Amino acid sequence: MKSRAAWLGAGVAALAVGTTACQDGDRSRQDTAEKNTPGQQVEQAQLQSEKAFDDARDAQKEASSQQREAARAQEDVQHKQQELQEAQAKAQKESQEAQASQQQAQARTQQAQSVAQQAQASALAAQRQAQQNFTTQQQASNENAAANQRVANPDAWQQQAANPNAATQQAAIAQNSRAAPAQEQQISGDVLSASAQEVLVSQRGEPRLRLKVGPSTQVQVDGRAASAADIQEGAQVRASYRTDASSGEPQALRIDATSRAQPAAPAPAESGESSPGVPRSP
Q: Among residues 259, 264, 265, which one has the least CA distance to residue 226?
């Protein structure tokens, strides 16, 4: 409180001194003006006027400088606003592109799923078709085997036709033979025809046996490995085969063929030469 009072006292004293000095200055100027001549008063007025103009120019310069600074600040604000707008536009564009890419990815995923479903359906249809083809082929093979039996043993076929019970008996015999493990048999003869799937062997000029050729069949022509299609018509062959339990057809295990036709040697009694499903003649 004392310090505040001291400050207040000092301020009042300084104010009193300033007031007194101003009054003294005014009286001094008044006295000087009364003492100056009119010409001197005009000159002083002119000097005061020039000083006022100088002060006005300085003030104008200061105002112009502040105005330029304000304009530059305004330009900076506009530039920042433009940068902000560009950044917002860029972010919006990138967001739209990302959304479009996501939609394209979803469309491709759906398309891939559709293609996969179609491929699966096609595979199932192909599997069913293959199964039907296999069934048809098996039926055709059975019919072919029956035709071979009729060609190889026409007497037996006529006997079966004359006696209806013979067919039933033969079917039972064939069923029993398929139920039992198939034994390996052998045959020798001449080739009537040959392809990659089968070889037709004859004995003494009569069709004897149609051998089915599979991937596991070993084929040699003149002692060299070959395919069944390489066997020429009229070549001599010696083959081992086994009757298939499901189809009843003779499946070739090994075929040895010679290009030079030679008299076919009679098959040994124990070779078991016979057509599938046809009893051997005594």
A: 259
